[in-house]
């Protein structure tokens, strides 16, 4: 079973801070200093990065993006796709009942578990999809079906710091 690393690494001190100094986020740490840090982390399996546009006034995102261009996400995630197909099939069936996509069912499931999913939105349709997901009231049986299918995948994407979900 593959798991996320036990530690997430933050990039808030990467790049320049507000007004070009070390105020707010960013400590004037640039690519030359950070490349060895990134390489050492990746070599040791620390590949979960916390970044945000506000960090370094956007520098952290730019720097991290330049470093990860050579990383092959497909090598990590594509082998898992066949493992999760049964779960996607279950979510697709539940979605048909509610007239929504498997992704919206996944959001409703996370909400039903008492979590607050954070999703990226760049289109009005994505906001509308999120609203539909919020309005889904999954039954105990539907949640059980998804929990069983998820368990059978053998894939665990939780970090070691995460508490078990209800």
Automatic annotation (TrEMBL):
<dbReference type="InterPro" id="IPR023210">
    <property type="entry name" value="NADP_OxRdtase_dom"/>
</dbReference>
<dbReference type="InterPro" id="IPR036812">
    <property type="entry name" value="NAD(P)_OxRdtase_dom_sf"/>
</dbReference>
<dbReference type="InterPro" id="IPR050523">
    <property type="entry name" value="AKR_Detox_Biosynth"/>
</dbReference>
<feature type="domain" description="NADP-dependent oxidoreductase">
    <location>
        <begin position="7"/>
        <end position="73"/>
    </location>
</feature>
<protein>
    <submittedName>
        <fullName>Aldo/keto reductase</fullName>
    </submittedName>
</protein>
<feature type="domain" description="NADP-dependent oxidoreductase">
    <location>
        <begin position="81"/>
        <end position="149"/>
    </location>
</feature>
<dbReference type="Pfam" id="PF00248">
    <property type="entry name" value="Aldo_ket_red"/>
</dbReference>
<dbReference type="GO" id="GO:0016491">
    <property type="term" value="F:oxidoreductase activity"/>
</dbReference>
<feature type="region of interest" description="Disordered">
    <location>
        <begin position="147"/>
        <end position="166"/>
    </location>
</feature>
<keyword id="KW-0560">Oxidoreductase</keyword>
């Amino acid at each position: 079973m593959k798991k996320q690393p036990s530690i997430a690494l933050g990039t808030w001190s990467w790049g320049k801070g507000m007004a070009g100094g070390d105020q707010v986020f960013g400590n004037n740490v640039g690519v030359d200093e950070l490349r060895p840090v990134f390489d050492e982390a990746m070599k040791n399996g620390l590949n979960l990065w916390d970044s945000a546009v506000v960090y370094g006034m956007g520098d952290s995102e730019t720097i991290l993006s330049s470093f990860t261009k050579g990383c092959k996400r497909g090598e990590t995630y594509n082998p898992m796709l066949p493992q999760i197909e049964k779960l996607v099939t279950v979510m697709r069936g539940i979605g048909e009942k509610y007239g929504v996509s498997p992704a919206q069912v996944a959001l409703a499931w996370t909400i039903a578990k008492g979590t607050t999913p954070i999703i990226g939105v760049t289109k009005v349709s994505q906001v509308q999809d999120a609203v539909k997901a919020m309005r889904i009231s999954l039954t105990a049986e539907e949640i059980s079906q998804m929990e069983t299918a998820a368990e059978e995948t053998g894939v665990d994407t939780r970090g070691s710091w995460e508490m078990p979900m209800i």
